[in-house]
């Protein structure tokens, strides 16, 4: 047993030693009768306000609170920097000013600890605006040391798994999520001003509908029934249009039990908008106006800087038929294909890989991703999708084989999808019944939503619907290439020791 203990001691990491030292400091603070984790601390200013006011506060007594992010302990006097969500400021502590006992307390503090300070504002000889502390209050002890270099975490997996540390040490990461919050705020303001009503619809549904995707399944014990985490809120939102809400939207969480990549997370955020008495061309105009509003708020320019390029958002955006651009890029005419075998043969001739279980439209999508999508940098509406693969969209009058639908692509990825909504209950039932016959749809849990058909039978006015991927939208406006960088806590494999 003694040998085992000795071995355990020798295997301790440097981090373990630092944690042990900090725990010892915590014990000393408690022994001094200090409340290390008080309930609250009232400050006169946020740090950002102090920095912004500058000279106006010189000589004034202020109090601030935040996390210690750097320290220079120098015998009887020390400098520290503290940081809150609004900014960072320097503080000067001198034993004669705060008192010897308080200064001993300060000596037990570390980078990462939370502290409250009060004192007069002054400028140092180097011109840095500084709090000359007259009192200090410990607010929370950090038992784990922060990464040594103040440039964020190096290991990408650790950054996502320990986002709380990433946010502490990397200001750029924090700015991304502040930007995300602002984008969502702009979206709400944009829609609210136009008379849209924000609503909430069920996240657990008895039928997985509104999109083609593999759902997550759960079980309700009391009702003794399986439920699906929603893959889309579409059918519930259109029920509301039937009920008389002519302009509705939801910023919603969706769940799809599918692969994880730089563009896909199993849990993601969508904006869905429905507007009665309009068609899909109205949603094109809405997209253009919404993106302009977001760009205007963030930069004041109709553009989205993305790494080495600047993407122009000037309108009107290009509109291109799906089959036309496929013909242009591949030299093949996909509009004549009407079977999976024919689609597979064309894909094979182009050297495009696909899974054995992929259906006709999924194979077409793989071809599009390989030959077309990477070149769609400036905003472009891809239109004229086949009706048989758009079961919720209204067909074109002059060509029922084509749906009134578009997908918006910017910077090589799909960001939005929209239809003129099919509101004929007889056609909708036929479409759903045809879809359920499809092997892929059955495996995804698809079935005819009889209640939705019943809703349509009460009458739904002409309507258009729009879905925008919020995560991808944020990627565009923050210049990031991975969806994990714009989701605070992306899904990861279980952590292993």
Can you put this structure into words, describing what you see?
- This protein has 497 residues and is an alpha+beta fold.
- Helices cover 35% and strands 24% of the residues.
- The chain contains 17 helices and 18 strands.
- The protein has helices spanning 2-10, 14-31, 47-53, 95-98, 100-107, 156-161, 163-169, 171-193, 234-242, 280-298, 322-330, 340-349, 360-371, 425-437, 439-443, 450-457, 470-478, and strands at 61-74, 77-84, 87-94, 114-123, 129-140, 197-198, 204-205, 217-220, 225-229, 247-255, 267-276, 303-306, 309-312, 318-321, 380-383, 405-410, 413-420, 463-469.
- The strands form 4 sheets. The chain has an 8-stranded mixed β-sheet with strand order 6-10-11-18-17-16-15-14, with helices on both faces.
- A hairpin with a 2-residue loop joins strand 12 and strand 13.
- Helix 7 (163-169) crosses helix 8 (171-193), helix 8 (171-193) packs across helix 10 and helix 12 (340-349) runs parallel beside helix 13 (360-371).
- The longest helix is centred in the middle third of the chain and has 23 residues, at 171-193.
Rg calculated over all Cα atoms? 29 Å
Largest sheet: 8 strands, mixed
Helix fraction, binned, reads 25-40%
Low-confidence stretches: 4-8
Amino-to-carboxy terminus distance: 24 Å
Shape: elongated
Beta strands, count: 18
Proportion in β-strands: 15-25%
Look at the structure and give the mean pLDDT.
92
Number of helices: 17
Structural class: alpha+beta
Please, what is the oligomeric state? single chain
User: Biggest sheet: strands side by side, in what order?
Assistant: 6-10-11-18-17-16-15-14
């Amino acid at each position: 047993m003694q040998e085992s203990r000795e071995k355990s001691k020798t295997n301790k990491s440097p981090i373990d030693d630092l944690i042990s030292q900090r725990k010892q400091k915590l014990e000393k603070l408690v022994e001094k009768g200090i409340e290390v984790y008080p309930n609250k601390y009232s400050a006169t200013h946020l740090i950002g306000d102090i920095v912004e006011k500058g000279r106006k506060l010189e000589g004034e007594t202020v109090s601030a609170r935040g996390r210690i992010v750097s320290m220079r302990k120098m015998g009887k006097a020390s400098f520290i920097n503290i940081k809150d969500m609004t900014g960072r400021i320097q503080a000067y502590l001198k034993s004669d000013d705060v008192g010897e006992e308080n200064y001993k307390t300060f000596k037990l503090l570390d980078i990462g600890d939370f502290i409250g300070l009060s004192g007069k504002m002054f400028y140092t000889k180097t011109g840095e605006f500084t709090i000359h502390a007259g009192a200090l209050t410990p607010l929370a002890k950090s038992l784990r040391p922060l990464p040594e270099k103040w440039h964020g975490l190096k290991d990408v997996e650790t950054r996502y798994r320990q986002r709380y540390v990433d946010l502490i040490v990397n200001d750029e990461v924090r700015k991304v999520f502040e930007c995300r919050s602002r984008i969502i705020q702009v979206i709400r303001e944009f829609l609210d001003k136009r008379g849209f009503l924000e609503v909430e619809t069920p996240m657990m549904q008895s039928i997985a509908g509104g999109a083609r995707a593999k759902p997550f399944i759960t079980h309700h014990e009391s009702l003794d029934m399986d439920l699906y985490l929603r893959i889309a809120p579409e059918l519930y939102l259109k029920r509301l249009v039937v009920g008389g809400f002519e302009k509705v939207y939801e910023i919603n969480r969706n769940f799809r039990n599918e692969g994880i990549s730089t563009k896909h997370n199993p849990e993601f955020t969508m904006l869905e908008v429905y507007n009665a008495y309009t068609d899909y061309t109205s949603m094109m105009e809405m997209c253009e106006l919404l993106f302009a509003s977001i760009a205007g708020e963030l930069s004041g320019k109709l553009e989205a800087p993305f790494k080495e390029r600047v993407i122009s958002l000037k309108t009107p955006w290009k509109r291109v038929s799906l089959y036309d651009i496929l013909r242009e890029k591949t030299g093949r005419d996909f509009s004549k294909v009407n079977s999976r075998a024919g689609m597979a043969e064309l894909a094979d001739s182009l050297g495009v890989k696909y899974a054995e279980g992929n259906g006709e439209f999924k194979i077409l999508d793989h071809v599009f991703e390989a030959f077309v999508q990477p070149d769609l940098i400036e905003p472009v509406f891809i239109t004229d999708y086949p009706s048989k693969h758009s079961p919720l969209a209204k067909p074109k009058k002059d060509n029922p084989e084509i749906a009134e639908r578009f997908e918006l692509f910017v910077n090589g990825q799909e960001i939005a999808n929209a239809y003129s909504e099919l509101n004929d209950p007889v056609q909708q039932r036929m479409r759903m019944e045809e879809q359920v016959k499809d092997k892929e749809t059955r495996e995804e849990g698809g079935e005819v939503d009889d209640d939705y058909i019943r809703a349509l039978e009460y009458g739904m006015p002409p309507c258009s619907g729009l879905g925008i991927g919020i995560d991808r939208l944020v990627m565009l406006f923050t210049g990031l290439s991975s969806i994990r960088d714009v989701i605070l806590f992306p899904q990861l494999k279980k952590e292993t020791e």
